[in-house]
Design brief:
The complex is a heterodimer of chains A (101) and B (472).
Chain A (H helix, E strand, L loop, with lengths): L3 H10 L7 H15 L5 H4 L27 H5 L3 E2 L2 E2 L10 H5 L1
Chain B lengths: L11 H22 L2 E4 L2 H10 L8 E5 L26 H8 L3 E6 L33 H8 L4 E6 L5 H7 L2 E4 L19 E6 L2 H11 L13 H14 L10 E4 L1 H4 L4 H16 L3 E4 L8 H16 L17 H12 L2 H13 L6 H24 L2 E5 L24 H6 L3 E9 L2 E8 L5 H11 L12
Helix pairs in contact in B: 1-2, 1-4, 6-7, 6-15, 7-15, 10-12, 10-13
The chains are: A mainly alpha (101), B alpha/beta (472).
Amino acid sequence: MVEVEDVIKMMSIAMIGDEPSKYLDDLKAILRLFDELDKYKDVFENYKPLYHPLESRGLPRPDKPIDSYVDLREVCGSSLYEGYVSLPPIKGVRRLGRERG
Amino acid sequence: MAARGPLASMDVDKRISMARYEYSRCREAHEKFNAFITIRDMEEVLDEVSSSEGPLSGFLFPVKDNIAVAGLPNTCASAILDGYVPPYDAHVVEVIKKLGGVVVGKTNMDEFAMGSSGETSHYGPTLNPWDRERVPGGSSSGSAVVVAWGSHVALGSDTGGSVRLPAAYTHVLGLKPTYGTLSRYGLVSYADSLEQIGLFTRYSLDMAYILYYLMEYDARDMTMYYGSRRDEVRNQLQRIIDGEGLELDDVSIAYSSQLIGLCDTPVSNMVYKVLDRLESLGFKTVDIDMGFVYPCLSIYYIIAMVEASSNLARYSGENYGMRIDAGSYWDAVTYTRSRGFGDEVKRRIIMGTYASSKGYEGRYYIRALKGRRWVKENLNRILREHRFILLPASPRLPPRLGEAVGPKGYVLDIFTVIPNLAGNPAITIPAGLVDGLPTGVQLIGRFYSDAELIWMSSILEGAIYDPGLLPG
């Protein structure tokens, strides 16, 4: 169930500053709609997520030579998780927040 | 008034006279129903018509305000984009201009295409020309209204029914093409994996003619389909334009009496009347179980809101439109987004953020994506056995103003979200008036059956609706 604290947290992440209680009833109604999927969890639990209706890697553009493409999986060296590609750290970029302490 | 089709051979004076009439209808739609956010001056438009050359010469194009037209404001009906003028044309607009068409203005819409009623616009609601107390449907409300009021064609975008729902509520044709058929380059993103640029017309011939040209391949949209099926669709469209038509053997149309039973009585009566008419025209209709439709609304709204929360993160006041200065960067962005976005947009961003956040992602977003595959498989299983699926375009007649704002209006999309989840094409075909209010049915087809859907609408033109019927 959505509570005011959840709304405040989500609004802060989404950088929206507004009166949270103004949205509470509508957000609860939306969450009830989302929760309808609980009834179907056993129906499609074993299906693979479908991120895109064509579900194919883009075909090479006819106006670009095939050599100009790189296979992202080779660049990353590995992991494909649920359609997200893990990229290697970019050289020369320091994680400021972590290094302060 | 008849279908336009090819006009290139028409002499300049005749073209200008037709454009002048059409412009006057656009201007009226703007003044009476708030159909435009930006409308160009008549002299400027007619000057361009007189000097235009090409197969689209003589066509005026109202364009939804989330499709970029160089030099015209592109607000997406949101305060946050107030004052933003794109320096480039969307691909479809490039094609229109290249082939002699003229953009007449930018049409009103739900803010960032989030809405089913045409009421969430920062510039005020669009009114239904059949009954000014009722909504025209959304989100492409202005484009639908302007075609209903006398324009031949308008561009919209369809994320979960944003072309097909207003088409039904204003008594015009509305097509959502197969995903990847029209380039999305220059279409402001709301939910990329669901949305397509779509078309409104009153005549099937115009629909075939315009789609034939607009489906030019564009490498800038990486999701655009490039292959032989594209040529097949264009060949079929060419046959419709040339008057040869298509030969579709053993057409079987699936419907679900269970789903039709969920609609208000006037709507379900209308759908059965259309089914009777189809049978009398020689088509086979088959009542089947479509239980897979029930969770579609939840699946659709989770995916759409998650994609929206990501896509709309770019509106921080740094690059586009409104910017409110404040003490710190964080305050400036927060104030800008708080004042710039309307309530419906904020609701969707908040819930999209929630459904994709750590701890909830698996329960909502990933589950919805799994459900999407299940829906697609079920839909295509039916479409392997039957050539089309017929559903109501909406479970209700056009609601009164204020009745469909916020989550209570989501149910209007129950039948239109299905093809967006799967990527299939679908068309709304008007089905006449009930108690003076427009109604429509939706035909869903197989991938790349866009021309077949338009051909079906041409068969039904005159049989179930009169395309020359105008409100008022």
